[in-house]
Write a structure and sequence with these properties.
Chain lengths: 483, 97
C-alpha cells in the first residue's frame, strides 16, 4: 500500500521592533539575563499592557506579503497555561479574531510543480521568557530569564497542504526569504527568532480523510525539520502498515542525537487553553487607509524581482535566484548596475562570484562589508578602459572588500596599473624570447601552443600587470622578426 | 444551571487545584448557584441588539515603538525567593519524556 504524508506548519517569528509588544523594554537578543524586564513583562499584578503600533504594522506587512486578508476588526485574548517562563500564567494572543486570515505562498515542489500552500491565519502574540535547565536528577532546577518575555511574535499557521518533509523545508525557506525581504524579522533559527511546530499525519494514498495527527514541537533548524518529519512520516507509515494506527493525537519532541521523535504528552484540546478576551486590551480596528499605506511601503518581493531580472536583464533563472534571494544582495546588485554602463552579466558575475565568496568567507552580509556599489562600478569601468587587467582586478576587489578604499587609490598605491606601454613591453618581450629558445623553436616549427607559454612568462615577469592582448600582439610580431 | 461535579474536577485539574471529593461536591453546589444567579442575564431581551464583543468601547490604544528604561536587575529580582547569577531560580520543570 502507498501512503501519503500530510503536513501543516505553525511558524513562530519574532518581529524586530525596538521595544517589546506590550511594554517599553528593549527587544534585544543576547543581553545579560533579566536586564530588559519591567513589571509588565515580569507579570507583576496591576500593570497595564499597551500595544506597540510597529508590531501591528509588521504583522500587517507580513499578511500583505503573504496575500492574507487584513481583518478590519481583531482582538486579543488570554491563552491560559502553566509554565514558569510565562509569568502571568497566560499568554496574550489572538483567538478567533486574528489580524490576518487566509493567504498563501507559492512554492516549487522537488518534482518541479508549482503549488500554493494556503495559510489559515497570522496572528500577533507575545513571546514567553527563556528557561534553562541546570543540575541533574533530584538536585536539578530551572533558571529563568525574562528578557525574551513580551517580545512581539507572529504565528503563521498553514493549511495541511504540504505533502512531504522536502516541501515543508522549501516552504519554510521561502517564507524566511520573504519575511527578511520585508524586514519584519531577522528570522534567525539559531537565535530562535524563526521556529516551527509541525503537524503531521499519514493516510493511505487516495484517501480523503486525514490520519491521526502528531504535533512535533520546537523544530529549530532546517535540518531538524526535515529529519524529524521524515522520521515521523516513516513511523506513522509503519504503524498503518502493521494495522496499528496511533490511538491518540500526541505532542512529540525531536531528539537530535538519537535521530528520533519521542512522546511528550497527549495533545491538549484547544478549549483547554480557556481563551477569553483580554479585558486590558481594546480591540484593533484597522482602517483601509492604514493597510494601503503599509502596502505602499512594501518592497518588490523576491518572486517579482527574480521575474524582472530574467525579463529585463536576460539573466538565467539560476542567476536571478542567486541575486534576488536576499534583499541586500539584490540592492547591491541593482545599485551597481545604475552606476555602470557595461554588461549586466559582468556585474552579476562579480556579485555572485568574488563578492559572494568573500562574504561567505567572512560571514558578512553585503551591508556589513566595506565594499560600496560605487567602488565596484568604478573598478569595472577601469577593466573596460584597459587600466587594469581582469586578473589584477581580483586583487583590487579583495583590497576594496577589506579596506573600503576606492579602486583607483588601491591601484596607485600598489602600482597595479596595467602596462600598456608598447615600448616598455617590447623590451621585455625580446628578453623572454632570448631566454626561452626551446618554445621559440617550437612555435616556429608550427606548434602555436608555445605562444601561450611565452605570454605566461611575460605576465609572470610583470606580476600580471601587462596588457595581455598587447603582449600577445608584440610576441607574434617579434617572433615574425626573428631570422 | 448546574455545574456537575465532574466538570468541577476538570476545571480544578486545568487550574492545578487539588480538590477532595467533598470539596468537589461543595463547589459543584456553590458554583451552580453562582451560575444560576449570573445566568439571569440570559433572559435579558436582546432581540435586535449587536453582540458585545468587548467590554471596552475604546479601540486602537497603541504606543510608539520606543524603548523605555527597564528595571535595574536588583529590583527585578528583589522578590525572588531564589536566584542564581541574575536568573530567577525555580524548582525543576519536569521534562516529559
Amino acid at each position: 500500500m502507498n501512503y501519503e504524508t500530510v503536513i501543516g506548519l505553525e511558524v513562530h517569528v519574532e518581529l524586530k521592533t525596538e521595544a517589546k509588544v506590550f511594554c517599553g523594554c528593549a527587544a534585544r537578543f543576547g543581553a545579560e539575563p533579566n536586564t530588559h524586564v519591567c513589571p509588565g513583562c515580569l507579570g507583576m499584578p496591576g500593570v497595564l499592557p499597551v500595544l506597540n503600533k510597529k508590531a501591528v504594522e509588521f504583522c500587517i506587512k507580513a499578511g500583505l506579503a503573504l496575500q492574507c486578508r487584513i481583518a478590519p476588526f481583531s482582538m486579543f485574548d488570554r491563552k491560559q497555561y502553566f509554565y514558569p517562563d510565562l509569568p502571568q500564567a497566560y499568554q496574550i494572543s489572538q483567538g478567533d479574531l486574528p489580524l490576518c486570515t487566509g493567504g498563501g505562498l507559492k512554492i516549487v515542489t522537488p518534482g518541479g510543480e508549482e503549488k500554493i500552500i494556503r495559510l489559515n491565519r497570522i496572528h500577533l502574540e507575545e513571546e514567553a521568557g527563556r528557561t534553562y535547565h541546570s543540575g541533574a536528577g533530584a538536585t536539578g532546577y530551572s533558571l529563568l530569564d525574562f528578557n525574551r518575555s513580551g517580545l512581539p511574535l507572529i504565528e503563521i499557521v498553514t493549511e495541511p497542504d504540504l505533502r512531504s518533509p522536502a516541501e515543508a523545508k522549501i516552504f519554510l525557506e521561502k517564507l524566511q526569504e520573504i519575511l527578511r525581504y520585508i524586514e519584519v524579522s531577522d528570522c534567525k533559527m539559531e537565535e530562535g527568532s524563526f521556529r516551527c511546530d509541525a503537524n503531521i499525519s499519514v493516510r493511505p494514498a487516495g484517501s480523503q480523510e486525514f490520519g491521526r495527527r502528531m504535533e512535533i514541537k520546537n523544530l529549530n533548524s532546517f535540518k531538524a525539520i526535515q529529519s524529524a518529519l521524515t522520521y515521523e512520516a516513516n513511523r506513522l507509515g509503519s504503524l498503518l502498515a502493521a494495522g496499528t494506527p496511533p490511538e491518540q493525537e500526541e505532542s512529540r519532541g525531536w531528539d537530535e542525537t538519537r535521530g528520533m521523535t519521542f512522546f511528550m504528552r497527549p495533545k491538549e484540546k484547544a478549549t483547554d487553553y480557556r481563551y477569553f478576551p483580554d479585558p486590558d486590551l481594546p480591540p484593533l480596528v484597522i482602517a483601509e487607509e492604514w493597510v494601503e499605506e503599509i502596502r505602499a511601503g512594501l518592497p518588490e518581493l523576491p518572486e517579482e524581482k527574480k521575474a524582472r531580472y530574467m525579463e529585463e536583464y536576460g539573466l538565467s533563472a539560476q542567476d536571478a535566484d542567486l541575486l534576488g534571494s536576499s534583499r541586500e544582495t539584490a540592492e547591491f546588485f541593482e545599485a551597481t548596475l545604475r552606476l555602470y554602463s557595461g554588461e549586466v552579466k559582468t556585474v552579476a558575475n562579480w556579485v555572485m562570484g568574488e563578492f559572494a565568496r568573500l562574504l561567505n568567507l567572512e560571514k558578512l552580509t553585503p551591508i556589513q562589508s566595506k565594499l560600496e556599489p560605487e567602488a565596484l562600478a568604478a573598478m569595472l569601468q577601469m577593466i573596460d578602459a584597459g587600466e587594469i587587467s581582469g586578473k589584477i582586478a581580483k586583487t583590487v576587489f579583495e583590497e576594496m572588500f577589506y579596506s573600503g578604499k576606492p579602486p583607483r587609490e588601491i591601484v596607485a598605491e600598489k602600482g597595479l596599473a596595467q602596462i600598456s606601454d608598447e615600448s616598455q613591453l617590447v623590451v621585455l618581450v625580446r628578453e623572454i624570447l632570448a631566454q626561452h629558445p626551446g618554445p621559440v623553436a617550437d612555435y616556429r616549427a608550427g606548434k602555436t601552443k608555445a605562444l601561450g607559454f611565452l605570454v605566461g612568462q611575460v605576465m609572470k615577469e610583470t606580476k600580471g600587470q601587462a596588457n595581455p592582448g598587447l603582449v600577445n600582439k608584440l610576441l607574434r610580431e617579434e617572433l615574425e622578426k626573428l631570422p | 444551571m448546574k455545574l456537575e461535579k465532574e466538570e468541577v474536577k476538570r476545571l480544578a485539574e486545568l487550574a492545578r487545584f487539588e480538590l477532595s471529593e467533598e470539596e468537589a461536591a461543595e463547589f459543584s453546589h456553590q458554583l451552580s448557584e453562582v451560575l444560576a444567579y449570573t445566568g439571569q442575564v440570559r433572559e435579558a431581551p436582546v432581540e435586535g441588539e449587536k453582540p458585545a464583543i468587548h467590554l471596552l468601547s475604546l479601540t486602537n490604544v497603541l504606543r510608539d515603538d520606543e524603548v523605555k528604561p527597564s528595571l535595574p536587575r536588583e529590583e527585578a529580582l528583589a522578590n525572588a525567593p531564589h536566584r542564581e547569577e541574575g536568573f530567577f531560580r525555580v524548582p525543576k520543570i519536569l521534562e516529559e519524556s
